[in-house]
Amino acid sequence: NSEKVPDGSTVTAYGSGLRTIDPFVLKQKRVQLVIEQAEGVPLVLQPGYKTEPGTTRPAAWFDVEDGQLTIENGLFRMLAGNRNYPERFLQMAGGLVTLRQIRVEGVDSTFPLIDLNPSAGHAPPQLLLDRTQLAAVRNAIRVRAAESIQEIRRSIISSSGGAAIVWDAGAEGSQTDANYSTLAAGKFVFQVLPLGGKPPIELFSDGCVYHSTAMLSLETDATSINWWGRQNAYSSMMKSFLLTAGDPGGTQDFQASWVQGWGVGHVLNPVQGANSTLLPELPTTVIDTLPDSFRLHKDCLAAKVGLGAPISEVGPRRTPPQPASNAQPPPQKGPTPGF
To answer: Half-sphere exposure (CA, 13 Å, Cβ side) for 265?
Structure first.
């Protein structure tokens, strides 16, 4: 929260190869961070770390407290080991964060990539993903703030060993909108842990592809969440759809469990069955889990009707955006000092 970066700043950093960005806290400021690829090998960002005795791991690489942060472009690679690397990519206590055309690789099996927590006296956190990929080992997003908002547009969220999104105690009244995105998980796409009461979570989904063996694990009262879906595709490998507390799992009937379970008008025009989604076998490591790993086979039903994330648009661009032909070229900029 340095005074060197005043409220309303846009910081543009250019680079190639492996570069570091130190963890930072943003408190009640508006900052935009734009990463641009310079000539050379692809740019990969990793967090810096402190070596002083007695230092501990920062809670997050980007820690936002009632501020507004936009991160545009860039490949962010989280690190693990015996050094003091951040526990999470992003932690929010209130505030508004937009992640646009970035890719985040998480390797920590203990913490989620993103944590949404309540603000102390300000508005609930709001998170927007736009053409972004989150690749996590455990849970990708955890929501613990009431009436928070998560908007997922044309993005990919994957978790090899957990859930794409988890709602934990305190998440009552949250709203999630997923549009033309792809969500994949090793355990459940969505998980709702015991909550503290009402109002329910509202989950809206339009044109998405879901890839997992189980869709939703509900470990609390069945009235704690409402699903509203239109023309979503469910992987042919998905065997369980709505798991309630104490349910042993196993194969469930899609119509009985999911469609009828939510009621009339909640599941419209679903794409489900043997040829609903056909994906290549997913890589076993986060670094190898690229947007192209989720490209649908052209002959499956979901691909024919254009569902899921637009793969070629997801993640960082490799070249700076070109100005319009009738526009003046921007002034030349050198690399940001220290980057």
So the answer is: 1
Token digits of residue 330: 């921007």
Cβ partners under 8 Å of residue 42, min gap 6: 16, 17, 75, 318
Comparing 281 with 315, the larger pLDDT belongs to 315
Q: Are 182 and 309 in contact (CB under 8 A)?
A: yes
**Both structure tokens of 108:** 């920590």
Round to the nearest angstrom and report the end-to-end CA distance of the chain. 18
pLDDT for residue 331:
47
Map tokens 């060197």 to a residue.
Answer: 4
Q: 3-34 burial, b for 16+ CB within 10 Å, e for fewer?
A: eeeeeeeeebbbbeeebebebbbbeebbbbbb
Weakest-pLDDT range from 105-109, 157-161, 188-192: 105-109
Identify the sign of the CA torsion 161, 162, 165, 170: negative
* Cα–Cα nearest to 205, from 225, 176, 165: 176
**pLDDT tens sequence across 63-91:** 999 999 999 999 999 998 778 899 999 99
Q: How confident is the model at residue 268 (pLDDT cuts 50, 70, 90)?
A: very high
Average pLDDT, rounded, for the chain: 90
pLDDT at residue 2, rounded to an integer: 61
